[in-house]
């Protein structure tokens, strides 16, 4: 068995039988594949490795985008909570102002009614 380099694959080649030649009996030899014949295999391996690296990079980019989306959602949630609290506070202040305004109108109506009754009663 001969030594093979790291980039070479083990290939089993069938040798001719005794009937075809007078050499050794049938057997399988392991023969290293030459560097020239490995070029297409290496190219395929390189292409696959490039694909895997690109895929991993794309997945990392997608994950970063999802993390950014999550952070933005948290920020928007905080803004929405603040807006709601502000709206509730403003609504409460507005209601108090409206109640004061209605109370003033009622007092004015009551005073007008008293004045009318006084004027009508004097006639």
UniProtKB/TrEMBL annotation:
Biased composition (Basic residues): 1-12
Ranges where the record places region Disordered: 1-41
Top-level taxon of origin: Eukaryota
Protein name (record): Uncharacterized protein
Species, as recorded: Athelia psychrophila
């Amino acid at each position: 068995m001969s030594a093979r380099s790291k980039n070479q694959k083990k290939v089993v080649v069938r040798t001719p039988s005794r009937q075809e030649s007078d050499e050794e009996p049938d057997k399988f030899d392991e023969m290293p594949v030459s560097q020239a014949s490995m070029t297409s295999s290496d190219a395929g391996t390189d292409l696959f490795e490039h694909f895997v690296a690109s895929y991993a990079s794309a997945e990392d980019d997608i994950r970063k985008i999802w993390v950014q989306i999550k952070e933005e959602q948290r920020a928007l949630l905080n803004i929405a909570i603040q807006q709601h609290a502000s709206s509730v506070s403003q609504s409460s202040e507005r209601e108090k102002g409206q109640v004061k305004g209605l109370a003033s109108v009622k007092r004015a109506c009551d005073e007008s009614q008293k004045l009318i009754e006084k004027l009508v009663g004097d006639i």
